[in-house]
Design goal:
Elements (H helix, E strand, L loop, with lengths): L2 H6 L1 H9 L4 H6 L9 H13 L2 H5 L2 E4 L2 E4 L27 E2 L5 E4 L2 E4 L16 H10 L15 H5 L3 H12 L12 E2 L4
Antiparallel strand pairs: 1-2, 3-4, 4-5, 5-6
The structure holds heme C.
């Protein structure tokens, strides 16, 4: 249902967007054929930048002068192939920790892995509609209905954004290169 037709009819979609009727069209777009306009994507880039999304969703690697973002894997989440050792022992003073990649986090909530935010349909959010994205950010629940999103994902800060800004973030993410990377599942804390 997606990209090819949308790409070839982009002229019509631009007209729809101008009339403010673009949400259905952009929800129907996918990995490579985003239909959002340039200004919306630029606004999304700004918000993703100040929201620090890449600080957790882009893996870091060790560079010559310290940790640096691995831009080739931009926003693709915790690397699937990276097998981490057991997390450090935590206490009530130091009660959470992060991996060297800045994509895995352990704390009282268990272990969370930053999600793949690229438009890959299998492993990223390429299968999400714009509505799915808005519902997730507004409710703090996966797709608005499933399990609660755990720390340190700052969904509460995003929940208060105007709808147009959340749509811009979605548009920006959908306009990024798709990276295939299946992030491990959340592991809840062991309860005694
Ligand atoms: C401090 C680290 C951090 C920052 C900053 C961050 N995230 Fe996350 N994000 C996470 C983690 C960890 C998860 C996985 C949470 C879980 O599995 O419960 C996640 C999950 C998500 C999910 C998937 C939710 C789901 O239901 O599967 C989306 C979408 C998302 N983040 C978008 C964003 C966006 C957009 C930004 C920037 C505005 C952002 N995140 C900033 C750490 C972060």
């Amino acid at each position: 249902m997606k990209t090819r037709a949308i790409t070839t009819s982009s002229f019509c979609i631009v007209s729809l967007l101008t009339l403010g009727l673009g949400s259905a069209a952009s929800a129907a777009s996918g990995a490579s054929g985003t239909s959002a306009d340039k200004a919306t994507i630029q606004r999304g880039a700004l918000l993703v930048g100040i929201g620090g999304c890449a600080d957790c969703h882009t893996p870091f690697r060790m560079g010559a002068s310290g940790p640096e973002k691995d831009v080739a894997r931009g926003l693709s989440g915790h690397p699937a192939k990276l097998h981490l050792s057991s997390p450090p022992k935590l206490d009530s003073d130091w009660n959470w920790a992060g991996s060297a990649t800045m994509t895995a986090f352990v704390g009282p909530w268990g272990i969370t892995y930053a999600a793949n935010l690229t438009p890959d349909r299998e492993t990223g959010i390429g299968g999400w509609t714009e509505r799915d994205f808005l519902n997730t950010m507004r409710t703090g629940k996966h797709l608005g209905i499933a399990r609660p999103i755990m720390p340190p994902m700052p969904w509460q800060a995003l929940a208060g954004l105007p709808t147009a800004d959340l749509k811009a973030i979605y548009a920006y993410l959908m306009a990024q290169p798709a990276v295939s990377n299946r992030v491990p599942d959340y592991r809840p804390a062991d309860r005694d």
